Amino acid sequence: MPQNEHIELFQKRYGLRMDHQERQRKKKAREHKLQSKMAQKLIGIKGKIFAKKRYSEKVQLKRTIKAHEEKKTRKKEDGKVPEGAMPAYLLDRENTSQAKLLSSMVKQKRKEKAGKWDVPLPKVRAQSEAEVFRVLKTGKSRRKGWKRLVTKVCFVGEGFTRKPPKYERFVRPMALRFKKAHVTHPELKATFCLPIVGVKKNPSSPMYTSLGVITKGTIIEVNVSELGLVTQGGKVVWGKYAQVTNNPENDGCINAILLV
Amino acid sequence: MSFCTAKTNVSLTSQDFIDIVLSKTQRKTPTVVHKQYKISRIRQFYMRKVKFSQQTFHDKLSTILTDFPKLDDIHPFYADLMNVLYDKDHYKLALGQINIALHLIDNVSKDYVRLLKYGDSLYRCKQLKKAALGRMATIMKRQAQSLQYLEQVRQHLSRLPSIDPNTRTLLICGFPNVGKSSFINKITRADVEVQPYAFTTKSLFVGHTDHRYLRWQVVDTPGILDHPLEDRNTIEMQAIAALAHLRAAILYVMDISEQCGHTIEQQVALFESIKPLFANKPLLVVLNKTDVIRLEELNPEQKALIQGFINDDIPVMEMSTFSEEGVMNVKTEACERLLSHRIEVKIKSKKVEGILNRLHVALPKPRDGCTRPAFVPEKVIEKRLEKGPKIKKKTERDLEVEQEDDYSLDLKKNYDLPADFKYDVIPEFWEGKNIADYIDPDIMAKLEELEREEELRVESGVYEKEEEEMDDEEKEIHRLAGKIREKKAIIAIEGRIGRSGGAPVMPRAGRKRERSVSRLRSEFEELGVDMSNKSGAHFSRTKSRSASRPPIKKARADSAGRVSSSSRVTPRDQSGIRNVELKAKAKKMGHKAQGKMNQFGKAGEADRHIAVKMPRHLYSGKRGIGKTDRR
């Protein structure tokens, strides 16, 4: 025992109080009173936090109680019919006719074709120009309004240099330029931080694509050499497409799903 | 007095950390914002929250980083001990992780503040702030392990014994169960556990003892077994760390009765293996448990081993902590050796010159050759012998030791009363009267006698105070003292009166001259000081400074004796004026001119006044060169 653990040393030599066990028991028994006092007294943000914690505790409690109860009771099994089972008088019929089979085949083919370009977010809200651009007034008396400031997150390439400021029509501020995206692999369920190679298509307008504006639903190309994917022929996969799933200007980061 | 602690009070868990910082942000920053406010105001509101959270995290994390001791800055003994106990690498890693978290949080805040500048709606700014705070909270959540480890380290650090590495120390080492802890229990008040099983002492213990009016530290170590350094466990490594870094006198304790479970040969072998650690330290081999078997009773081979020590100039001493014989001798010997060693080291060092210069032992010079021993008259010597040996009175402590459990302190047994009255319980009051008043049956008679005696004494003048003859000086001093006391009381009362409930007081500069020469004169005359012939005094000089006087210093003159004019600057109201009447006239004119301005409160010529705001020549007309669109 270390030299300055006086309390423990005393307890070791002389033991605990005579009524120690009794006091512990009573203290524990009084705990529920403290809890209820807190629950009634706490207000404001502390009250909300406490209520949340208490709710999750209660949920856990109820679950364990239910589990215990299930063990005790015995449930009667109601006769469930397994799926796909048919009554005896229908057994001999053939269900689909030839015509129906053909039309279903055609439908399948059509779906497959359409599914070639299946993306996780098929439809996104289109962004109007008023949302994406903000008018930047220039000139000595601030009357000329031909410049536009991009208010959404954008990607500019590596060797990007601005046009001379006097002739620059679309201003993409540095704070809103992003180089990396958090890409999730849908099967592996793992997220990686991969550098962006370029913006492939922005669903709202081709102008946004050429500017490099990234909004929700944009298809971007990311550098997946980090994942170490290899094609059938043995070549290393370098770039893949991914679709953006959040609003980057509200979250400050680009979250995307890899399109496999 | 601790030499190595983490200065924080309590470290937090990561969840608490986050809760505290977020609730602090919510309390200390403004909480209300509406979407119809100006966008700059909304942005500022949210940027403030992000920055505040970042600052709070930063402050708390950097206090943690500074409060934990850096292993390179503390004494090597403590650095080694901490390495043994907490693993230096793990410790540094944990602190490194906290440092990384600090920088990451700073970066997050920077990025999001930059993004917030482009937020154009309340919703967007709010989402950005939520994302920023969420990111910081996630970074903190990842530090849960490090924080937990650091909290444990801090708690353990606070429990380390406070060993001063620089003071006089005695270090006790040896096999387990040889009697090290019993020894320290005997010489100090440290209450170390002593048990029959090995490794009872699992960490370093410290006790203090006195010798020659100095404080000595005694450090007890856990037992060391004899195997190579790599195989040693944490407990033994603490002992090794203490041996390696503390400059102390080493007491190597051996059990010659072999009750600890190891033979003398094994103990000597251990000594040889840790001998390198004893370099430059005064060493003492102590043979313990001599109540069981003495050194002479050992067989010759074992005696030869012990003799080996003596041949190597290492002093060997015997003691028994059970019967307490030889314990004090061991302590004294060890202390003496350490003291002389320390003095030697100090003498060899460079600082000794400074100390030696200040030391001087003065011995009285013998007057003549004859010795003068102490003189005791013969009769006294005879009387001493007659008295016989001193009868030692039996103390209560001796009684206590004798009776052990049956002893109880009985203060009434020495009362000077007949035996059957001694243990009676006496109440204090009885029927409304004090018992103490009736202790003695003759008490009334005695009281009357006393009073008579007292009267006689008063009549004869025993109590008359002798009027001491004071000479003039003392009388004067008494008088002055009385006056001073009186004056002090008056000032105190005036001060109290002066504080008349909140009436507005003129500022100091506006008050009339409180300290003037006339006041000084009057006060001193009141006190009786003669102020008549104080013409050359300093205070009188201050009065006459209004007219320009020649300076006291001699005017600077060149070789021909002509005085340079800069030493005698005339004041402004006299420069350019020929004589006194003209001066008076100039003054009068100045006053007159100022009076009108003062009366009407108008701006004077010194007041900044632009008469014409748009002078025509600047705001109209064509220009010869240059454009006119900038006017």
UniProtKB/TrEMBL annotation, chain A:
GO cellular component annotations of the record: nucleolus; preribosome
Pfam families in the record: Ribosomal_S8e
InterPro entries for the chain: NSA2_fam, Ribosomal_Se8/biogenesis_NSA2
Places the protein is found: Nucleus, Nucleolus
Residue ranges of coiled coil: none
Gene Ontology BP terms: ribosomal large subunit biogenesis; rRNA processing
Keywords: Nucleus, Ribonucleoprotein, Ribosome biogenesis, rRNA processing
Major location (coarse): nucleus
CDD domains: NSA2
Top-level division of the source organism's lineage: Eukaryota
Task of the protein: Involved in the biogenesis of the 60S ribosomal subunit. May play a part in the quality control of pre-60S particles.
Similarity annotation: Belongs to the eukaryotic ribosomal protein eS8 family. Ribosome biogenesis protein NSA2 subfamily.
PANTHER family (UniProt xref): RIBOSOME BIOGENESIS PROTEIN NSA2 HOMOLOG (PTHR12642)
Assembly behavior: Component of the pre-66S ribosomal particle.
Protein name, entry field: Ribosome biogenesis protein NSA2 homolog
Source organism: Daphnia pulicaria
Automatic annotation (TrEMBL), chain B:
InterPro entries: G_OBG, GTP-bd, NOG1, NOG1_N, NOG1_Rossman_fold_dom, NOG_C, P-loop_NTPase
Comp. bias (Polar residues): 562-577
Pfam families listed in its UniProt record: NOG1, NOG1_N, NOGCT
GO molecular function, one term: GTP binding
Name of the protein in its database record: Nucleolar GTP-binding protein 1
Organism expressing this protein natively: Daphnia pulicaria
Role according to the record: Involved in the biogenesis of the 60S ribosomal subunit.
GO biological process, one term: ribosome biogenesis
PROSITE patterns: G_OBG
Highest classification ranks of the organism: Eukaryota, Metazoa, Ecdysozoa, Arthropoda, Crustacea
A GO cellular-component term linked to this record: nucleolus
Coiled-coil features, chain-numbered ranges: 456-490
Family: Belongs to the TRAFAC class OBG-HflX-like GTPase superfamily. OBG GTPase family. NOG subfamily.
Taxonomic superkingdom: Eukaryota
Gene3D superfamilies linked: 1.20.120.1190, P-loop containing nucleotide triphosphate hydrolases
UniProt domain OBG-type G: residue ranges: 168-339
Biased composition (Basic residues): 540-554, 585-594
